[in-house]
């Protein structure tokens, strides 16, 4: 049976996948035009600020971007971010009840996150959505392709949160407790803000500092200084700007292991016959672009001090941390957040990945 899932451009589960270049994110106006053409659950007039039906409206009075998990305004948004708020009685039977307690407002049903698809007939949970979440948490993964679904092969663009080539919609719901990590593109590699370099020196700004400012105002910017140079991280453009250079930045969630929720059944109409592995395996990218499993290779020129299982054990202790190991006597630092290994002496980097086999 063909494999069920593959990600661009790091982790693959199956046959070849075509690389997709980065593209500009659509404007709010483009998203509005798209929603106007589909039978969507959120009220388009409420989202524009002028629904005349009020409580009699047959659609949900909730921020459509919050339902997708990508509202740029966050807690500053003027629209409802929980389905339990502003849900008219006529719409109560059309969608699951993602209620929120007085202490912890959320959009999920209690899980850390929920990935869902909609073919125009309502939202359905994606089975094994921890696969999507694991790939989404990697800054270099642009998209993922899932096979063996009732819709055929489904390609999801993580950057724009869109299904490519099909009349399907995708969204990621969040429980509000996700730790978000910020990365900057340096030398064609995604580097985590606050990560230590080969000399053990970290940048003066951390992801948590950036995220705090982003949550206060997602349309503003974050300014900091490095070696006397002023840098500005523009949230709306997702760029780090200095006097002479612009760099891409991205924001991805810290991966959390899925937890079972009592009494919650996942809808399976969209995804069937998944043939995914369950054992994590750590690999590094060779000079030819081929991926190799971490193992000892004793009495060879590539003798490694750690195995894939050793790395997985360290990863489970702290999936945002780092670990040191040696290959043929040379020291390397493996950064779980950036998914790269760095030669401590030469600063040469290689990509690493975690796949299920």
UniProtKB/TrEMBL annotation:
<feature type="domain" description="C3H1-type">
    <location>
        <begin position="37"/>
        <end position="64"/>
    </location>
</feature>
<dbReference type="GO" id="GO:1990404">
    <property type="term" value="F:NAD+-protein mono-ADP-ribosyltransferase activity"/>
</dbReference>
<dbReference type="GO" id="GO:0016567">
    <property type="term" value="P:protein ubiquitination"/>
</dbReference>
<dbReference type="InterPro" id="IPR018123">
    <property type="entry name" value="WWE-dom_subgr"/>
</dbReference>
<dbReference type="InterPro" id="IPR037197">
    <property type="entry name" value="WWE_dom_sf"/>
</dbReference>
<dbReference type="InterPro" id="IPR036855">
    <property type="entry name" value="Znf_CCCH_sf"/>
</dbReference>
<keyword id="KW-0862">Zinc</keyword>
<dbReference type="InterPro" id="IPR041367">
    <property type="entry name" value="Znf-CCCH_4"/>
</dbReference>
<dbReference type="Pfam" id="PF23466">
    <property type="entry name" value="WWE_4"/>
</dbReference>
<keyword id="KW-0479">Metal-binding</keyword>
<dbReference type="Pfam" id="PF02825">
    <property type="entry name" value="WWE"/>
</dbReference>
<feature type="domain" description="WWE">
    <location>
        <begin position="268"/>
        <end position="354"/>
    </location>
</feature>
<dbReference type="Pfam" id="PF14608">
    <property type="entry name" value="zf-CCCH_2"/>
</dbReference>
<keyword id="KW-0863">Zinc-finger</keyword>
<comment type="similarity">
    <text>Belongs to the ARTD/PARP family.</text>
</comment>
<dbReference type="GO" id="GO:0003950">
    <property type="term" value="F:NAD+ poly-ADP-ribosyltransferase activity"/>
</dbReference>
<dbReference type="Pfam" id="PF18044">
    <property type="entry name" value="zf-CCCH_4"/>
</dbReference>
<feature type="domain" description="WWE">
    <location>
        <begin position="165"/>
        <end position="256"/>
    </location>
</feature>
<comment type="pathway">
    <text>Protein modification; protein ubiquitination.</text>
</comment>
<dbReference type="GO" id="GO:0008270">
    <property type="term" value="F:zinc ion binding"/>
</dbReference>
<dbReference type="InterPro" id="IPR004170">
    <property type="entry name" value="WWE_dom"/>
</dbReference>
<feature type="region of interest" description="Disordered">
    <location>
        <begin position="1"/>
        <end position="39"/>
    </location>
</feature>
<protein>
    <submittedName>
        <fullName>Si:ch211-244b2.4</fullName>
    </submittedName>
</protein>
<feature type="compositionally biased region" description="Acidic residues">
    <location>
        <begin position="22"/>
        <end position="39"/>
    </location>
</feature>
<dbReference type="GO" id="GO:0005634">
    <property type="term" value="C:nucleus"/>
</dbReference>
<dbReference type="InterPro" id="IPR000571">
    <property type="entry name" value="Znf_CCCH"/>
</dbReference>
<dbReference type="InterPro" id="IPR051712">
    <property type="entry name" value="ARTD-AVP"/>
</dbReference>
<feature type="compositionally biased region" description="Polar residues">
    <location>
        <begin position="1"/>
        <end position="17"/>
    </location>
</feature>
<keyword id="KW-0539">Nucleus</keyword>
<feature type="zinc finger region" description="C3H1-type">
    <location>
        <begin position="37"/>
        <end position="64"/>
    </location>
</feature>
């Amino acid at each position: 049976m063909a494999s069920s899932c593959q990600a661009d451009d790091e982790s693959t589960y199956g046959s070849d996948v075509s690389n997709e270049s980065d593209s500009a994110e659509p404007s709010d106006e483009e998203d509005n035009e798209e929603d106007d053409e589909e039978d969507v659950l959120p009220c388009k007039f409420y989202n524009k600020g002028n629904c005349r039906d009020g409580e009699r409206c047959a659609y949900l009075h909730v921020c459509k971007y919050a339902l997708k998990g990508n509202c740029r305004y966050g807690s500053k948004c003027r629209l409802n971010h929980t389905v339990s708020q502003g849900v008219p009685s006529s719409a109560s039977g059309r969608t699951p009840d993602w209620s929120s307690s007085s202490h912890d407002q959320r959009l999920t049903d209690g899980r850390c996150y929920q990935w869902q698809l909609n073919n125009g007939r309502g939202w359905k949970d994606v089975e094994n959505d921890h696969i999507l979440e694991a790939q989404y948490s990697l800054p270099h993964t642009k998209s993922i392709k899932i096979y063996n679904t009732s819709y055929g092969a489904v390609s999801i663009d993580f950057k724009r949160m869109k299904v490519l080539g099909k009349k399907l919609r995708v969204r990621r719901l969040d429980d509000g407790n996700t730790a978000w990590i910020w990365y900057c593109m340096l030398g064609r590699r995604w580097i985590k803000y606050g990560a230590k370099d080969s000399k053990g020196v970290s940048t003066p700004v951390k992801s948590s500092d950036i995220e705090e400012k982003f949550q206060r105002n997602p349309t503003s910017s974050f300014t900091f200084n490095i070696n006397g140079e002023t840098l500005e991280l523009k949230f709306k453009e997702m760029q780090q700007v200095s006097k002479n250079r612009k760099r891409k930045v991205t924001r991805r969630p810290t991966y959390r292991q899925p937890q079972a929720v009592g009494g919650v059944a996942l809808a399976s109409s969209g995804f069937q016959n998944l043939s995914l592995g369950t054992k994590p395996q750590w690999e590094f990218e060779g000079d030819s672009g081929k991926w190799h499993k971490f193992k000892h290779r004793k009495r060879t020129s590539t003798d490694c001090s750690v195995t894939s299982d050793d790395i997985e054990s360290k990863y489970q202790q702290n999936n945002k941390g780092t670990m040191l190991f040696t290959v043929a006597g040379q020291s390397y630092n493996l950064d779980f957040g950036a998914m790269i290994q760095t030669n401590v002496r030469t600063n040469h980097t290689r990509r690493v990945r975690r796949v299920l086999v």
